[in-house]
Write a structure and sequence with these properties.
InterPro entries: MADS-box/MEF2_TF, MEF2-like_N, TF_Kbox, TF_MADSbox, TF_MADSbox_sf. By secondary structure, this protein is α+β, with helices and mostly antiparallel strands. It has 4 helices and 5 strands; from the N terminus they run αββαααβββ. The protein is elongated and about 110 Å long. The chain starts with 13 loop residues before the first helix and ends with a strand.
Length: 223
């Protein structure tokens, strides 16, 4: 039974289109390889899929550049010259953009103001004022953040200080036996990020230097 003729048009289904491309690409490369061996010819095929992926076949012991050079020689044209001219034109445009940017930087730094007319000077002044406003707003936000952070640290320190005083008074009055309401009353806390142990020497404990009783509160920092 004869195979039906396939209508040549774009395959709308992307999956079927990719499958057809893969199959026909392999068949085309196989034919090019056979043609290279059977007829001793140079073949180069360059293909880009729908998603931009490159596929190519080049005859053994041959490079694409060699084939392009041979093509230019046969046709009497210079493809590289046209490409070089486009690159030179692109380089020229980039240099012009670079000069313009450097000139603008000098003007914003206060250099070469004599090269500007009145309208350009007014525009430059407006741009500088806008930039200064942005920088000033950022500075104020930074200062506000630092002030709020300092307030929080100060508040935490005051809370810790108040808690330590409360515990010390509880020990002094003998109403906090769990924290050592005896002769030495240690109080554990944190002050400025460091561990702190507070001891109080009861009045009935003699002072080593005077021999008299003392009422001493000592804080040892423990890192």
């Amino acid at each position: 039974m004869a195979r039906g003729k396939i209508q040549i048009k774009r395959i709308e289904n992307p999956i079927n289109r990719q499958v057809t491309y893969s199959k026909r690409r392999k068949g085309l490369f196989k034919k090019a390889q056979e043609l290279t061996v059977l007829c001793d010819v140079k073949v180069s095929i360059i293909m880009f899929s729908g998603n931009g992926r490159l596929h190519k076949y080049i005859s053994p012991s041959t490079t694409t550049k060699q084939l392009i050079d041979e093509y230019q020689k046969t046709k009497g044209i210079d493809l590289w010259s046209a490409h070089y001219e486009r690159m030179q034109e692109n380089l020229k445009n980039l240099k012009e953009v670079n000069r313009g940017l450097r000139r603008e930087i000098r003007q914003r730094s206060g250099e070469s103001p004599n090269d500007l007319n009145l309208e350009e000077l007014l525009g430059l002044e407006q741009d500088m004022e806008s930039a200064a406003k942005v920088i000033r707003d950022r500075k104020y936000r930074k200062l506000y953040t630092q002030i709020e952070t300092h307030k929080k640290k100060k508040k935490n320190a005051e809370c810790i200080h108040g808690s330590l005083l409360h515990q010390i008074n509880a020990i002094r009055n003998g109403s906090d036996p769990e924290n050592g309401g005896g002769e030495y009353g240690p109080v554990l806390g944190r002050l400025n990020g460091d561990s702190c142990i507070v001891f109080r020497l009861q009045p009935n404990q003699p002072d080593c230097n005077s021999g008299m009783g003392s009422d001493l509160t000592t804080c040892f920092s423990r890192t």
